[in-house]
Amino acid sequence: MGAVGMGYSPLFETNKGRGRVIYRPFAISLFVAIFFIWVYRLTHIPSKVEDGNIWVWLGMFGAELWFGLYWLLTQALRWNLVFRHTFKDTLSQRYEDKLPGVDIYVCTADPEIEPAMMVINTVLSVMAYDYPTHKLSVYLSDDGASDITFYALLEASNFAKHWLPFCKKFNVEPRSPAAYFNNIFSMAHQNNQYDDHTHNIELAAIKKLYDEMEKRIEDSTKMGEVPKEARLKHKGFSQWDSYSSKRDHDTILQIILDKKDPNNSKDIDGIVLPTLVYLAREKRPQHSHNFKAGAMNSLLRVSSSISNGKIILNVDCDMYSNNSESVRDALCFFMDEEKGHEIAFVQFPQNFENVTKNDLYGSSLITISQVEFHGADGLGGPLYIGTGCFHRRDTLCGMKFNNGQNRINDWTKNENDQSLEENLEELEERSKVLASCTYEENTLWGKEMGLRYGCPVEDVITGLAIQSNGWKSVYYNPKRKAFLGVAPTTLHQTLVQHKRWSEGDFQILLSKYSPAWFAHGRISLGLQMGYSTYCLWASNSLATVYYSIIPSLCLLKGTSLFPKMSSPWFIPFAYVIIGETSYSLLEFLFSGGTIQGWWNDLRIWLYKRTSSYLFAFIDTILKLFGVSDSAFVITAKVAEEDVSKRYEKEIMEFGTSSPMFTILSTLALLNLFCFLGLLKDAMLREGSTLEAFEEMFLQTILCGFLVLINLPIYQGLFLRRDNGRLPSSLAIKSTALALSLIIFFRSLA
Ligand SMILES: *[C@@H]1O[C@H](CO)[C@@H](O)[C@H](O)[C@H]1NC(C)=O
Ligand SMILES: *[C@@H]1O[C@H](CO)[C@@H](O)[C@H](O)[C@H]1NC(C)=O
């Protein structure tokens, strides 16, 4: 730490992970063992006499070859972990007067899934950043074009006049009002620490304001319309006069707070408020709107004409800021004199506030956020995941890296002087054009500028394109989490989310932005491998499904697929199983998880691979052959009251029938039946039980593991009575399927 060389003290430092001395030899030894497993498979192919078994055997080899190669890819993300640390004090000392403008984009798309209160809490949390307010601008992009969201934002702009001074005065954290009130009242309840008198009075006053605002917004949501007085009071609502539907309307743009507006730009202490802008870009049925990427690109252009901040933060509307200093953290990277000029974006992890202790659905993705992204950072930078990310405006707009010439000497310089001479209306009119449907025609937007189009996970390809332009990115994962979102609370939501992700990532691999060829030679080989681990999620499904069916069926039939315990070939299998299991457990515990959480994570790992990834894989292949949309209809989410009670108690929530659940229960029952069949055989057979067990040891372990990990499914099928259980029709269907599979397999050869 501290000064380096000639009085230069950096704004951030980078430390290498400490575990590498142990990890690297371990990984190499594990690879040797994997290699011996492959050798075993190839040298022990059953002779032709046993015929049908050849295919079973080759299938095992195929699966193990895949697992081994995939494991090799994931090593790239574990080889060279780095950890970042920032020096915000140095930043303030050196640059407090020269901080750049920061534009913050909050994106919302659907007023029903994303309630207005949630959206404005996110907006308020970022408006209240500890940052010079005249350099901060917040843009809400509303792809739902809902006048109720606009109304909520107007309400929020008034509440901000009290909220921001309150935050500053009492150093409030976190600065999302809902989260703050939630924390403080549950804390006060526990500790009875209610001593600061002024604080209490002002707290009560601000809570009252908040509650009143909440009531007005919720009432208008319930009514489905904005109250008449409010509508008359603000001219912005007239923009909905020409509105015909969510998919067919003009650009709606309203600068709600702006420094130029002398009446309405200051808080109750007379301090200027951040600029606040509402945008619903133009939509027409005949024009493709390119989803979130299209919204982001409109924001990029509109904000360039209004505030033109050099740094851009984008967050999803369900991710509030949990740390008011995050902007400063990010600037420590961009403004570092030595290394800042090569950094294009700073990605924060996606964290969640609603995760229970043992994280039943593996929502916190611990290994990704605590290990793999640190590994990607060591290879040139993490992926851009579409939220909680700070960008340089220039790079997001397509600027290529050019060593030395990208240094910014004056971060405060604003190229955008035109707006100074205009009044607000002129500025709004001029900016509206930038968000029109036709603006991008015959331009490079979506191709080389802004977020790239043509792929469902536009964020990832955009990040990849930026890195391929020569830039680096940084992963910053502070202990106190910077952004908190809402995690899925049912199994079905989790699986659907992962289907979408894995499908999108798989399509990247097959698209022109593939990390395999597009990025080849432009980013490091290790980072190419790192990207590929995510792009290949979906293709993991086949090997996993094979491994959860065939060994168990063979077990029942008495066909041995693994070496027996006394054979030397048993050793590599045992080493890989014990080594990988212990390593993954340790990795999980070191990343802050619990043992039960690890077991849950393992279960979700299996469920994702056998349902989400499988469907993603099949859908992608179908699309490749021109069979257009998914055959697997996604059922709507059910949100009942008892759902969240079960969530708190970590009881797995099924509650609906879905093709994904059919697969999961069929696999679970198949293994249960095979295991029970084995027990029956063992009891009936005399004498040779031990010998048979010795020969079938690994298969028995595998089948037993699959039965154990599926316990929640058996409970959901047969034992539970609450609404979250699996429907009984599904129990019948999957029992029939599992039994048919067993009978069919027995009848073979
Ligand atoms: C999420 O957590 C908040 C408090 O942190 C709680 O009020 C809310 O009910 C939770 N939501 C769900 C769906 O569990
Ligand atoms: C969010 O911020 C608060 C401080 O305001 C902190 O106590 C808490 O640990 C943070 N949450 C997480 C998940 O880091």
Protein architecture, described:
The chain is of the alpha/beta class and 749 residues long. It folds into 2 domains: 287 residues, no CATH class; 368 residues, Spore Coat Polysaccharide Biosynthesis Protein SpsA, Chain A. The chain is 53% helix and 8% strand. The protein has 26 helices and 13 strands. The protein has an 8-stranded mixed sheet with strand order 5-6-4-3-7-11-9-12, sandwiched between helices. Strand 3, helix 4 and strand 4 form a beta-alpha-beta unit. Helix 2 crosses helix 11. The protein is globular and about 95 Å long. It starts with 11 loop residues before the first strand and ends with a helix. The N terminus is likely disordered. The structure holds 2-acetamido-2-deoxy-beta-D-glucopyranose (2 copies). One 2-acetamido-2-deoxy-beta-D-glucopyranose binds next to helix 21.
